[in-house]
Amino acid sequence: MTTNHSASRRPDGRERDELRPCKIWPHWTNNPEGSVLIECGGTRVLCTASWANRIPSWRKCMGWVTADYSMIPRATGERNAREEGTAKNSRSQEISRLIGRSLRMAVDFKAMGNNMVYIDCDVLQADGGTRTASVTGGWLALREAADWALERGLVEEDFIRHQISAVSVGVTEAGEVLDLDYAEDSRAFTDMNVVQTESGEFVEIQGTGERSPFSSSQLSSLLSLASKGNKELRQKQREAGK
Predict the structure, then answer these.
(1) Burial of 16 (0-12, 13-18, 19+ CB in 10 A)
(2) In the sheet that 116-125 helps form, which strands lie side by side, from edge to edge?
(3) What per-residue confidence (pLDDT) applies to 204?
(4) For the chain, what is the HEC assignment?
(5) Contact (CB, 8 A) for 179 and 229
(6) Burial of 98 (0-12, 13-18, 19+ CB in 10 A)
(7) What ranges do the domains of the chain cover?
(8) Average pLDDT, the chain
């Protein structure tokens, strides 16, 4: 049986369907082939894309995209031990896989040729939605790397086929809401991450009833909120990429 939650005001005063202020800075650092700083409210993530003229040994005549996610030690209120080498915690591994899966949906691997792009997402400051910000910023970094390769004749055609963004939604004391910050996420009844393409098609939906189950009508409402938020985020991507 689904618990009813009486609607109340969100902690930061936003409307239920309102994104946090989002800023995206392209070409943030000089060395990577793609580099983006994305800020969603209090969350800040540096996303870089590194080009490599090789592919994994198990790939045959087509490219690949892989992703890695981590948080700097003081991204949160208290210092966490730095993750070193392959000693990733299970959360970071799971988020890395989500980012990789999401961004691979953007790519035509045959058009990439025998090339690979590494996406690295480093959370500088965490206030909820770090994985979705990583997907949104990571796509633009991947876009920059594709443009870099095209300009240098490393690929014959653009291998980016889809624009990808991601946003969180959830059920809180305020009802169904868009783009949860940490204060909301830590007390949410339901938490969900939604990845979509430029046409609104779904790439991935991760949803959990954290404190109570959710109904089909709530699910429909959450997906509608996510679609609205992702549409706005894709516009932010386009504006930053001009």
Answers:
(1) middle
(2) 22-26, 34-40, 43-52, 116-125, 64-71
(3) 98
(4) CCCCCCCCCCCCCCCCCCCCCEEEEECCCCCCCEEEEEEECCEEEEEEEEEECCCCCCCCCCCEEEEEEEECCCCCCCCCCCCCCCCCCHHHHHHHHHHHHHHHCCECHHHHCCCEEEEEEEEEECCCCHHHHHHHHHHHHHHHHHHHHHHCCCCCCCCECCCCEEEEEEEECCEEEECCCHHHHCCCCEEEEEEECCCCCEEEEEEEECCCCCCHHHHHHHHHHHHHHHHHHHHHHHHHCC
(5) yes
(6) buried
(7) 22-240
(8) 94
How long, in residues, is the chain? Answer: 242
Q: What is the reported pLDDT for 85? A: 59
Amino acid 57 reads S
Tens-digit pLDDT profile for residues 159-175: 999 999 999 999 999 99
Q: Which amino acid is at 10?
A: R
Q: Which residues of the chain have pLDDT under 50?
A: 1-4
Architecture of domain 22-240: 2-Layer Sandwich (3.30)
Q: What is the pLDDT of residue 141?
A: 99
Place of tokens 């943030």: 28
Nearest-angstrom CA–CA distance, 150 and 170: 40
